[in-house]
Amino acid sequence: AGCDVWLNNPLRPQEASGTSGMKPALHGGLNCSVLDGWWAEAFNGRNGWAISPDKDVDGREADPCAAALEQCCLNRSHSRRTAAQLDRRDAEALYELLETQIVPQFYDRDRAGIPQQWVARMLESMRSICGQFGAARMVGEYVRDYYLPAWSADKAT
Predict the structure, then answer these.
(1) How many domains is the chain built from?
(2) Which of 36, 55, 130, 156 is 20 to 30 A from 113, comparing alpha carbons?
(3) Stated pTM of the model
């Protein structure tokens, strides 16, 4: 079982880590998500798609960092936008991706019926995600960055 596209669209920056999105790459699935949580680190432009609006709700060029900060502050009185406005903006960006990139690439087949661009994304997804995002890397980083320094500091005292 699996999926062709893993869609994840939390309110930025409220994605805790989104580890379920790491699994589709194991079978060649592609991610389509806002640039938050693990996808902000993993996305390279060739291994899936980023829901990242080009235009802000007022028509200006979108600033992803400012959008994330604003979504953090939605419940505060100085927020200029509502959650509904930000959701609408992200929805428009998602529809644009679906209409102009995702669906066309899925159905663009060569003479043998193979979607070459899609397969290239699948392979890049597997190459760039499977080895980089897993328990082996996590444990290695914990040992190197936390456990060994703590052990060395304790041993020195």
Answers:
(1) 1
(2) 130
(3) 0.74
